[in-house]
Amino acid sequence: MSAIQTKAPAARADVIADFYQWMESEQGQKASLVQMRQRCEKVLDAAENLSCSVSVLARIFETKAANQLPEYYLAIKRKHALAIERDPDLKALFSMFGNESLSTLSALDDFSVKRTRQREVLAIHPYSSEFSIAEEVLPFIDVSAANGHSSRFILDTGAPQTRVNNETAKRMGVKLLTDSHYAYSTFYGERDVSARLGILESIKVGASEFRNVLVFVSDRDNLLGLDLISKLGRLRITRKTLELNAAPSERCDSPIIYTRMDINQRLAITARLDNRVTLAIVDTGNIDYLTSASPGSPMNVVASLTPGSSPISAASQERYQTFKGVLTLPGNTMAIHYKYYPGFTIPPSLVLGRYVPSILLGWRAFKDFELNLDIESGRSCFNKF
Predict the structure, then answer these.
(1) Which keywords belong to this entry (predicted)?
(2) Whole-angstrom Cα distance, residue 246 to residue 118?
(3) Rounded to an integer, what is the distance from CA 235 to the centroid of its chain?
(4) Using CA atoms, how far apart are residues 259 and 145, in angstroms rounded to an integer?
(5) 281 torsion bin: left (phi>0), alpha (psi -120 to 50), beta (else)
(6) Beta bridge partners of 147
């Protein structure tokens, strides 16, 4: 699920360029909300200040600091009223909360995480998705709420925000922000999918508990997104289990880059597909082994493990094309089949100062790989069996 989008920091004045360079730095990645706001306040140009303000707003969402949203949201809305009115995307963003929602958020206690310290192994249930791609297997885990009800959520490292469907929201006691509304897009080419926002008093993954959680509520599958997955501590994700407080990985075949420039935080690996430099986004909510944002190059002759040789091998389904290619990750090079969906909206990645098409490593890749996730230490790895 893709939600708040910030504008790409292309050619800007020195101050705004400095803001985004700082955001990408280790210091910016670890900066507090106060530090981000102070940095953005130094950007005097109105348009550029609005841009970095939206980035700050996105970080408030990403850190789940829901009770800090109203004050900042209203301040930016007042400060940039004319510019927001002229821009349809910004107008939609700054119309997502009504007065009742803002009042509820202001009175909310702080978001908190209480993690288990013991090793815990949770089963992954290979169930089909209820929507979108029928008969395809995705990883589901059991999640429980404060009122004792539990449901199965897709363990989705490609979803920036946790999402709860309408039925689950009722059973788990989600407090809906009744005058909230947001229309989001998905990687699958869907536009203006309607959602509301709500507050979960408590949500548990194993013995770890999150309190006062801002979630999206819609008619789609339940998703445990990267916003909460990244706060669970050191994890090991395999085809069959989610392990909390896993032993540190002894090796690191492909180091993971955890990027959080905006609400669309992601896990990515430097990669090459047919000798094209890109980032591979690790997306356990994607059913394919590999999905590319751009098609391969048709060739008459296929040379195995030769970069640049990606002819179409089949177009058996109208909604995608299948290519043969060569995927290179740090420590691994392999011949591979991958899919290209013309309607997909996989976000591009910034590599060496320019935006390039991304690829998604999906749940099928976990037949060959496991994910060792350790955001706090900065040592996360995608390891081949």
Answers:
(1) Hydrolase, Protease
(2) 9
(3) 17
(4) 29
(5) beta
(6) none
* Residues 335-385 pLDDT 10s: 999 999 887 878 787 777 777 888 999 999 999 999 999 998 889 999 998
- Reduce the DSSP state of residue 40 to 3 states and report it: helix
How do residues 203-245 score in pLDDT, each as one tens digit?
Answer: 999 999 999 999 999 888 899 999 999 999 999 999 999 999 9
Residues 6 or more apart whose CB falls under 8 angstroms from that of 118 comprise: 207, 245
pLDDT of residue 189: 65
Q: State the pairing for strand pair 223-224/150-155.
A: parallel
CA 104 to chain centre: 26
Report the C-alpha dihedral over residues 302, 307, 308, 309, rounded to 10 degrees. 10
Q: What span, in angstroms and rounded, lies between the C-alpha atoms of 60 and 106?
A: 13
Local structure of 112: helix, strand or coil: strand
Q: What is the DSSP letter of 50?
A: H
HSE, side-chain direction, 13 A CA sphere, residue 59: 23
Token code pair at residue 46: 């109105």
DSSP secondary structure string for all residues of 154-200 = EE-TT-SS-EEEHHHHHHHT-EE-TT--EEEB-TTS--SEEEEEEEE
**Spatial CA neighbour of 320 closest among 345, 339, 294, 297:** 339
The residue assigned the tokens 């069996």 is 385
Nearest CA to 67 out of 112, 32, 29 is that of: 112
H helices then E strands: how many in the chain?
10, 26
pLDDT of residue 60: 93
